[in-house]
Amino acid sequence: MASTKAKKSKIHERTPGDILMSVICYIVFSLCALVCIYPFYYIFINAISANDLSARGVILFWPQGVHFQNFISALQIDGLAQSAYISIMRTVIGTFCTVSASAFLGFMFTQNKMWHRKIWYRMVVATMYFNAGIIPWYLTMRNLGLTNNFWGYILPAIVSPFFIILTKTFVESVPKELQEAAEIDGAGILKIFFRIMLPVIKPIMATVAIFSAVNQWNAFQDTLLLVTDKKLYPLQFILYQYLNQASSLAGQSNSGSGTGSLAGLATSQTPTSIRMTITIIVVIPIMLVYPIFQRYFVKGIMIGAVKG
Predict the structure, then answer these.
(1) Which of 191, 211, 201, 209 is nearest to 106 (CA)?
(2) Mind listing the pLDDT tens digit for each residue in 269-278?
(3) For labeling, which of 97, 125, 203, 230 is most exposed (least CB within 10 Å)?
(4) pTM (2 d.p.)
(5) What one-character DSSP code corresponds to residue 232?
(6) CB atoms near residue 3 (< 10 Å)
(7) Model confidence pLDDT, tens digit, residues 60-81
(8) What is the rounded CA–CA span in Å between residue 77 and residue 39?
(9) Spatial distance between the Cα atoms of 218 and 236, rounded to a whole number of angstroms
(10) SS3 of residue 283 by DSSP
(11) What would be the CATH architecture of the domain defined by 80-231?
(12) 3-class secondary-structure state, position 89
């Protein structure tokens, strides 16, 4: 017994080399985290700092002349509320449809009873590598009546080969005895999917939900190609426009207001303040999604990526 305890203590004893390696790892990963966090921090401190200082590039590490007039002015921009509504709706509806389709198809592609399932699965996967291009895609969308149509944001993203592969791999890691027991009790495919499989595959569904929500929230290329109706513009497209028109927007915002005093210089809009403020408004909502699904995300992506 004494020898066994001695061996265990030797195994758990940390050498100076182990301690040095741990310190190096902490330093390296801390620097990587800082590199990832700093751009968001930089945008935020410039959005709330004195606009004349941020325009000169003085604000680098901490805010100066803190004020929130930029956000008040940005929220008064015409069309911003409607764009926020469109972005929220396309993110919620699009994510729900994509997650539902990925879960069901990923489950069905594991069923031997599915008619020619291997052929259908290969046809879906093939779309990851081959596509017709933008012009045929646009012509197809136009012929389907999806130009200047809200559903043009939703329908093309419902069937995603990458998400289906993740879900299928996760389903294959679930013990087959669960489904076999349900079949013995007389359950059909739909009942097995909704009653047995859905509660089990929640981690991969949360992973797909995060990826899909981020994709939907950040998308604006489809708006460039399909939409001319301003009522259907999402926030990201508004951000794209405002980044290109920041100088003129700053001039419009400052017209009719006195900017001669130091206080006026601090709160009068500049192209930099417009860009920083709109970026914060657009980025913060989607960042709030991650804490909700964090506990499912790591497990889902690991099991979904490599079959257990």
Answers:
(1) 201
(2) 677 777 788 7
(3) 230
(4) 0.74
(5) G
(6) 7
(7) 888 877 777 777 777 777 777 8
(8) 25
(9) 6
(10) helix
(11) Orthogonal Bundle (1.10)
(12) helix
